[in-house]
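Our consortium's second objective concerns turning raw sequence data into structural hypotheses that experimental partners can test. To show how far this objective has progressed, the report includes one record in full. It was chosen at random from the queue rather than selected for favorable results. The single chain below, 738 residues long, was entered without modification.
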Amino acid sequence: MAILGSMAAPRSPLSRLFTVLLAGLLAGLALAVAALPGNLLLGFAARSAIGTYAALPDALRTPATPQRSYLYANDGKTLITTFYDVNRTDVALADIAPVMRQAIVASEDRRFYEHGGADLRGLARALVANVKGGGTEQGGSTLTMQYVRNVLKTDPTRTAEERAAATDPTVGRKLQEIRYASALEQSLSKDEILNRYLNIAYFGSGAYGIAAASQRYFGKPPATLTLAESALLAGLVQSPDAYSPIDGDSDAALARRSYVLDSMAATGAITAAQAAQAKAEPLTLHPTQQPNGCTAVAQGHDDWGYFCDYLRRWWVTQPAFGATVPEREQALRAGGYTVVTSLDPQIQATAQQQATKVYGYDNKRALPIAAVQPGTGQVLAMAVNRHYSLADNPNGQANYPNTVNPLISGGASVDGYQAGSTFKLFTMLAALESGRTLSTGFDAPAKLPTRYAAEGPGSCDGRWCPANANPDWMDGYRMMWDGFGRSVNTYFVWLAEQVGQDRVVEMAQRLGITFRADSDAAFAKDNAANWGSFTLGVAATTPLDLANAYATVAAEGTYCTPVPVVSVTAANGDRVPVGQPSCKRVLDADVARAATDAARCPVGQQSPYGQCNGGTATGVNDILGGRPVAGKTGSSEENATETFVGFTPQVAVAGIAANPDDPTDSVGSAVQAKVIDAVARVIATAVKGQPEKAFVAPSRELAGEPRRPVERAPVVPDRRSDQDDPRSLLQRWLDRRG
């Protein structure tokens, strides 16, 4: 390593003069004390130049060097991706092969275990040789001095100017380096200094530290490096870019390897025969590239990118990682965190398989699916028939097959999608909470004139007049059980009027429904009491919000904020206090149990009170093999979207078929059965191997006085829209976009 800067840097006459003066001084000192032990002189120099170890810059006492962060699936083993500005990970000295330690000492500082931080004899020799010129400059820096320089030039707590000054080609900087190195050696053992050096040295090809270098060049941990591999890596640090066999000159790398092996033999670390044998080994590389960020997730799993992106968005909201968003982003890239996420690879695989089974990657329509664990809020899967990629799309296609937009969780430009009659759950909960019972009855007509003014096809004499999609199957006397099971529009619009639309809207918000569309947010804030069509699912939502809302009911009224992590561990091994379930009771348990009881009707199961008599998703019961399950379908106006959300006590899953780029492109009623099947199969994967858990029946007080079970063969409804709305679909889409 050049004593006064990089080997390629030209030296000014003034710099050369400083070099001559310093060389003369050090050479004179070396001659004067030739008979004295080197450590005696260095100890005196250290004590006179700097007081104590405590006076060193913080970065040298407690290095804040950047390290990459690792994201794993919930098994703690399956790597999703890594984040880094600098590809680097610290390892203990015991996890580095002994031959690697010997190789770096032989290559860079043969007298490492003899000097006290600076080797005056070696320094003077290098300076004199450099002044004479005539070839490559010689380095006189010890490993400890190199460590000082590496720390100061990479310290993220210092300014860019301060980091640049750490490599200034000046005598003053070199003297400071000597002082710092000498002070370090007063308090740290040689092994500790060697370990720190190996963890920060640059080995070329983007690899900082021996762990990253071992993986980058040989695809293995540093504990298993061979003699030949160790010698190759040790030879790189003198000129990483020039010697790197991946990015530079492999012949030069082999020549440096031979030099290191000869040096090891000269120090007695290995025999001459071992050196010769290692020299004869061919250069065999197994280069690996660490993924960086959400667009570089594990090969073949680019669907994980959507979950990764959701985690990144969550991360920058957490004060534990910094006071500002930029600080939190930097912490993710350089903090060396180990993040065990909540992503379940098996559930994710099934969700992705089902999403792409309904629509292919190159289909303009999409089926985003989300899975959430009740009682914790942990997000288990996020899938959609898109590649999470920044790659261009063919033929001007907006969001397919490649996109990084949050189609599953919402945010940025994604408001969400109408989820139709799945919003009837919020009306039912508000009614139950207000004291009404599951047996609350109403003779539901085919059309229901309301108090809300409206014009157009959905009006009756100037009033909004919603209709049932299948009058023969839906009209007549209904209670909450069969009103929910058969998705009777007029029953639930009537029920919402009795309860108050504002209470229904508030219930949805309480369970985590976020109004991302400006028009929806304004309606909820300023005119919720008159939002008559809200119960029919006209507000935009996302599969993640919807799954978590139903998970709240599955958890008997306990709402948990969605969270993408199980644990976060800092680089020093400390557990970061984030990601724990953040839950609160938002519903009386009996109210949630009553809603669950009615929600068993749509999926082909029976309430303990025997009041289910038909459902819109009865095939779910067969897919789950009779296991307790509940859920609800939803179709928006003109079947623009088709939705199904289902849940057991262990998982809630929602899927919404839509065209993310054009809400006027109706997906059609035919896809509803496929959406139901897809969601049900994700649930089946999630509960496979888990003990079967039964839903708790609601109290008699909330059941009320149900009528006798009606023995009637279920009628398969037609697949027309099960909701209506006075505003046109196109107009609502335009409203949401201002």
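The partners drew two points from this record. The chain has three domains: 67-85+290-341, 88-280, 382-441+476-567+583-687. Residues 88-280 form a domain with the Penicillin binding protein transpeptidase fold fold (CATH 1.10.3810.10). Both points have been shared with the crystallography group to help prioritize constructs.
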